[in-house]
Amino acid sequence: MASPEFPSDMAFEILTRTSLETLDACKVVNKTWKNLTYKLGFMQVYCHRTNNILGYFVQSLENNKYVTEFVSMDDCMGKDPLNLPVETLNKPEYRIFNHYRNTKIEASSKQGILCCVRRIKNRNHMYYICKPSTREWKVLPNPKTRYRTVKIALVVLKSSPLHFKIIRLSQDSSPPRRRRLGLGNYCCEIFDSETYAWRQANTISLPYDVFFESSCLPINVSGLVYFLTDDDHVLVLNYNGKEARPRFSLPEPVIENKNYTDKKLVEYEGKLGFICLSSNEMLELWCIDNTRNHMWNKEKEVEIETVKSVIKYPSPVDFYDSDIALMMGLDKLMFYNEQNSSFDVVKLDRWCRRNDPVDMDIEKQEHPVEAQDLERLLEEKSSLYAATSFTLIASMDRYPLLLRARVSRTI
């Protein structure tokens, strides 16, 4: 006998009071519950009831050094943006993102773990795995850095114990006579936390005149990692660095009309999504429901005249939830509700404008997490759900870099 349908209002009351780990599990178990978590207002209620803060972490470049700023939708209306605690600590060893250590966030995962790279002397680099919610990090062995890093993706396979992989694509930028990799070939290296070592995977080959889109970072959806290339196609890799599917194209109207701009891959309601500005300056959202046939369906077409009247040169970077688009201007972030044209605006600090964003839910915990927990999680069977959901999204000279994340923090 089939069980009766669980009332949606009761499901809402339960889901808005549960933990982040349980919430993500419920999205997999029940499609109705999954759709409920993406509805307008769910995350605001959830954050209020579970004592979370939902916002974005902006990473900017100033005087060739990376600095950061945390902004929250709850603190938009005329309030100063929030800062992540690691930036305000006096102890140098806690300063991960600051003026003194030129550390860049290269990749992030849904579990709130970051891959960071810090430039040191003689053009060398040091790799870290970082958990900003508990202000802790661990140094990783370096890959073969003789090649220039092009793209980095981070995926967490298991949270108890912590098991993650880093996918690094690099290109030989040596003069032609000294080049080991041919034009269009990319070295793929995989770091596995279980072996705690890098290994070289298959060489990824693109046509010689095709490059990875610099303004779009990898998107991890349904067990695959997607990369956008500048010929309006998508490269698909599995977690072992192998091409899982042949490259497929963006929606046909985008291919045929070169006036589409601000193209970015996103995750939308757990699906692979694509956002852009059309030739008539409408925000378009396309999604793939079936990853086997890669058929794009237009989900939304949003008028942004209201956005343009408030921020200069708006660029879409993400969807905060099903109905709220995140737009980036020269010095402002806007959370735009396309249902009723309402919006919240965050004005960025002077030193964070024009450069590099991260989407974070910061959860207050009853029991503080000790500084050694990240290393312990790599060895022991304990839950990592102090954080969930990071996605690096955009990187352009004119617009900031957005990292989407839910991160829990002890306050």
Which oligomeric form is depicted?
single chain
| Rg (C-alpha, Å) | 21 Å
Structural class: mainly beta
Q: The biggest beta sheet, please?
A: 5 strands, antiparallel
Give me the count of strands. Answer: 26
| Helix count, DSSP H or I runs of 4 or more residues | 7
Shape, per Cα inertia axes: globular
What's the arrangement of secondary structure elements?
Elements: H1 8-15, H2 20-29, H3 31-37, H4 42-50, E1 52-62, E2 65-72, E3 103-108, E4 114-119, E5 125-131, E6 136-140, E7 148-159, E8 162-171, E9 185-192, E10 197-200, E11 204-205, E12 219-221, E13 224-229, E14 233-237, E15 243-249, H5 252-256, E16 261-268, E17 271-277, E18 282-288, E19 296-303, H6 305-308, E20 315-319, E21 324-328, E22 332-337, E23 342-347, E24 359-363, H7 373-377, E25 387-392, E26 401-407
Antiparallel strand pairs: 1-2, 1-24, 1-26, 3-4, 4-5, 5-6, 7-8, 8-9, 9-10, 9-11, 12-13, 13-14, 14-15, 16-17, 17-18, 18-19, 20-21, 21-22, 22-23, 25-26
Helix pairs in contact: 1-3, 2-3
How would you explain this protein's 3D organization?
The protein is mainly β and 411 residues long. Helices cover 12% and strands 41% of the residues. The protein is built from seven helices and 26 strands. The strands form six sheets. Strands 1, 2, 24, 25 and 26 form a five-stranded antiparallel β-sheet that branches. Helix 1 (8-15) crosses helix 3 and helix 2 packs across helix 3 (31-37).
